Amino acid sequence: MTPRFVTLPEIRRAARARLPRDAWNFGAGGAETETTRRRNRRALDRLAIAQRVLVDVREIDLRTSLLGVPLSWPVAVAPMGGLVLFHAAGDLEMARGCGAADTLQFLSGATGWPVEEVAKAGAGPKMFQLYHHGDRGWVAELLARVEASGYHAVCLTVDVQVLGRRERDILNRYDPREAMRIAPNPRGPDPEYQARLTWDDVDWLGKTTRLPIGLKGLMTVRDARRAVEAGVRLVWVSNHGGRQLDHAEGAVDALPRIVDAVGGRAEIVVDGGFGRGTDVLKGLARGAAVVAVGRAALWGLAADGAAGVACALDILRRELRTTMALAGQTCVRRLDPELVFRVDENRS
Ligand SMILES: Cc1cc2nc3c(=O)[nH]c(=O)nc-3n(C[C@H](O)[C@H](O)[C@H](O)COP(=O)(O)O)c2cc1C
User: Fold this and answer.
1) Is the CB of 299 under 6 A from ligand 1?
2) 298 has pLDDT over 70
3) Which of 105, 148, 242, 310 has the smallest C-beta neighbourhood within 10 Å, fewest atoms?
4) Tell me, what's the pLDDT at 2?
5) Looking at ligand 1, which residue's alpha carbon is closest to its atom 7?
């Protein structure tokens, strides 16, 4: 079947045209001045890729693994809450799209669907993102269900101590929770959200689940080292797509320092502004095992449900293959360390 969309910007335009203005802004926006959101993109644009030629690139191997889980390619869909605002079948549809494109999905802890149903909805590998709301009993029960449903890891998001001030939503008088009509969970979110999370909770998490644990939202060497000492196996370099701390560093800029500090003791995932095959190659060359995409997949969901997600991921995969070939690279697990370098440009 001929795919409905042929480029990623076309998908983004279709999503924008279909979505109500407030939902579009909720997805596209960032915190306050949106400096972090733009910086993610600029940091990627400041990196150049070396153009290596005269290498036989007929065979390109995109296969890799994360925490022992084999993956057909090194891209994952980042956890996103509120998917129902983008498609009526939200997380289920995202799972179907990821399954069709054989792509690792991180299910958001803010999902409106039971974890069991999402696990059954799509054939691709899945990991679970946790929001710890302060009630350990509730979290332990949830994690038992996550384990039983076949998720391969649990990743605690740590950069939402309080919710970032998303000014587009504030200006639009738009409350995504209200828009989703989430019924208050009697044992659910602590009013202070995750404000009281500390390393003690990470230790507790490690003792509470049999699954390998990750932390999402680490941006400093100090926190990454501490995470490894706490037994964390997946370090996720992320500023939440610029939706939390405004004026944080671009994620791909923080990446090499964190890769060095971790020194192979944990696996690295990065996200923030990655939306092209060239971007993915940059993240991998700088030491991430897997690059995660948020909005790039979200626009696919909004544009055409599972088919849109699969289409976006397939285009991204095709772009990655093309970039690998034109950069003289044949295997994502053995990229030339000098492949990506910073260029001095005032504007990109
Ligand atoms: C609509 C939306 C909802 C999100 N919800 C969550 C969430 O529930 N949990 C989480 O850890 N991150 C969440 N994020 C952040 C993403 O996981 C990811 O870090 C970010 O989107 C990556 O940047 P990108 O969109 O530029 O690829 C959300 C992002 C968006 C756009």
Assistant:
1) no
2) yes
3) 148
4) 62
5) 80
